[in-house]
Amino acid sequence: MKKLILALSIISIAFGCNTANKKETVTIKGSDTVLPLTQKEMEAYQKKHPEAAISVTGGGSGVGIAALLSGTTDIAQSSRKIKFDEKLKLEESGKEVHEVLIAYDALSIVVHPDNQVSRLTREQLEDIFTGKITNWKEVGGEDLKIIPYARETSSGTYEFFKESVLKDKNYMNGILSMPATGGIIQSISQTKGAIGYVGFAYVNNKVKDIHVSYDNGKTYIEPTVENVKNESYPIVRPLFYYYTNLHETGKSFIDFILSSEGQKVVSEVGYITLNK
Amino acid sequence: MIQTKKIKEQIAFSVFRLLGFMVLGVLLWILGFIIYNGIGVISWEFIFSAPTDGMTGGGIFPAIVGTFYLIIGSTLFAFPLGIMSAIYTVEYAKNNWLTKFIRIMTNNLASIPSIVFGLFGMTLFVNTLGFGDSILAGSLTLGLLILPVVIRTTEEALKAVPKTYRLGSTALGANKIQTIKRVVLPAAFPNIITGLILSIGRVSGETAPILFTVAAYFLPQLPHSIFDQAMALPYHLYVLATSGTDIEAARPMAYGTALVLIVIVLLMNTLAGIIKKRFEKNK
Amino acid sequence: MKKFIDKLIEGLLKLSGTVTGITVLLIIVFLFKEGSGLFQSSTVEKGYTLLVNSENLIDKLSPEELKHIFDGKIENWKQVGGRDEEIRVFRFDEIFSIYTDDELGEDYALIPEKLGEVINTNPAIIAYVPQKYSPKNVQGIKELTQEKIGLSDYFLGEEWLPTATPAPLFGILPLLFGTLLVSFIAILIAIPLGVGVAIYLAEIANERIRKLLKPAIELLAGIPSVVYGFFGLVVLAPIVQKTGNLDLGETAFTGSLILAIMALPTIISIAEDALRTTPKAMRDASLALGANKWQTIYKVVIPFASSGIAAAVVLGVGRAIGETMAVLMVTGNAAVIPHSMFESVRTIPATIAAELGEAPSGGTHYQALFLLGAVLFIITLTISIVAEIISSRKMIKE
What we know:
CATH superfamily of the largest domain in chain B: MetI-like
Distance between the termini of chain C: 50 Å
Number of helices of chain C: 14
Strand content of chain C: 5-15%
CATH topology of the largest domain in chain B: MetI-like fold
Number of helices of chain B: 11
Strand content of chain B: under 5%
Order of helices and strands of chain B: HHEEHHHHHHHHH
Number of domains of chain B: 2
Number of strands of chain B: 2
Shape of chain B: globular
Radius of gyration of chain C: 29 Å
Strand order of the largest sheet of chain B: 1-2
CATH class of the largest domain in chain B: Mainly Alpha
Helix content of chain C: 55-70%
CATH architecture of the largest domain in chain B: Orthogonal Bundle
Oligomer: heterotrimer
Distance between the termini of chain B: 50 Å
Helix content of chain B: over 70%
Structural class of chain B: mainly alpha
């Protein structure tokens, strides 16, 4: 028994002493929207470079940028532009921030498949999510309470929606928040009166997407790849990687994503490639 | 008159029996649900390969390895420390304020919610001491979590060793430390091991302490060193159930992960039970 | 030499003994130090300031008022004590749509000047700008006094909106109520079930059943919280939704159900121990007096073990309050003061788990979360002390 403990200790110490390799794992943290893209890109990249060590964690764009600030990540993946004061904080701590645009994403508004409403204006969306409109009948649907879902405050999607659709107004009190996009899809598919917003790539046949109008009802646009590419769909956002200083593997990975191979993965995952 | 008394008793007993079986039923419901949905997913590939296709395929090997490393790390930290602490309070301590203080503190540590450990672990190990998100930080945090359990079970184990053993040893000329090393500890060993096994079960299932100290969403390469992040089973189940592009498609993976977790807990509990029984027999 | 080693070893052991004490003290220090820093911070988001025209009568605004103004709910200055004028909300980014990049100068050096112009020409304006770019000591511009976040803002505030602009709101009442509601309902469910099973195990069940049930309960205790959360999310929430004909299944009630199951093993094992310590003599005396088994149980054993059972319940509450993952996955996480248990709630542990990652180290959100951790720590500490007192009161009785 004692020998077993001794053996285990030696193995662990030997393992622990392998600290020389500390620098080689590229850490990526941040947006849950970018997460599936990063994961797929990692898989594709590692087929060509099997020795590359990359790790990715989600939590929301805010998590990634906060980690960049505290130095616990190499790359922050974000579905919103870095905020002014976040940039200031980084610069104040002596770090220079580099921004790389890696893809575009459309934000889809989704409802339960049985919901009769299929089009909404931006103003209606703003009123729904700030709590001014509370019943579907007010926007042409049945007499059913509207249940809006949002992401957690750490989410870039949350921030982007607030900026673009709510025009910077604050969400309503007591809005339900799901820790991740998948949770929103799940909840909406189970709840008749629900409405939420998710990255375009997450939409599946369990939910229905809404045609949106940003010109007060003159035209309603459906979120499709073509409509995003020809810029008619209004709720589109850029996806970024932010980093301060990066070594070989990290730079190579980013180059891969920007290459035609990497961009092919982008459209496979359901996002929009850079060369529109 | 006696009839109603008997009837009342019958009714009461039936109600309680019902409650007992309800609880059993809940357990079987939960286990059954996971086993039924998860068993089809378990395969060689599932256990030994990394996740692919955005977590909808492949396996959970990195998470299993990560949990394994965390188990080793946390027990390596908590066990020596916990055993030594228990030896002190049982064998050495006089009934002074220090001992009382230690006892109260150990009880308090045991009742602290796991998220507070996560918070503390993050601020002490990840930030202040600068270990970053790492197996080291995660192991230390988990180690602190199970420390009170280790101390308590070791204390019980040591107390259960009959006084006669110690007296006999001293009579033969051994000093205190020799007595402890050669007589008391070996006698208490099975119970201490039971504590170890139960702690392993605990560590493999805890999520909150590792959220901010070590957990990674996707790390297909296994961790190289203790300063790397790692995937872990409970965190993996959490992300499979709540994030990812296609929750529905990843659901089978989630069931499989839950099943692996349950199996680990079942195994540990059974192992602990067997050792306890063996020990009783030998007496 | 040997004596020296012996002393050394003893010292080492003593040191190990104090580790738990040191840890608890460290936890307290870290939590409270970081958390109390919140009250040194101003209410407006760090690095930003609020500017108004110096003709404006207002000198300061509360975080709630700020939020309502910037959300468009308060539209006129007279509603907050100023003149009868429509409020003109100005956010920093607007400067980029009023002036071109050239006009703003190299490195944006002219922004303060331009901002000054904008504010001067708009008497009813309120501008939310970074301190770095705010015009300093310019005539006609007034900076609203920055208040520090107050104790009542935090402990009595009714809204928890940590990322609201311009002034985040850190009122913990919704979180506190959410936590208490979920735990309270959970205990209501768990007490009859738990105490009942404890009685069954201790008094009624035969050896065979006890051999089956005890390991089953230990197994229930060992199931990880995230597995419970998974079960709650996938199985219980839809059931609750269908049965209650609710809008959605992620409610406080669903959370309570799962917490009740999780608290059961704690309650059962401690209550069972308490029941078993009833001296045989008391039971025999009761039986000798003609009582049957059931009467003995509820007239003699239970009252005797009552403080132990109470302690079991209290510890069960502690377990429920501190639970994180299962609640996070199942309660919907809406930060509102709940009106019924069929609404979504957000508990303290779930809030910490969900928000800690994104709070920049040292910022106000970070400090607020640490303070939450401190509050949670105090609650669970109090519960554990209460349980101690209850069970030691029993000792004194003897």
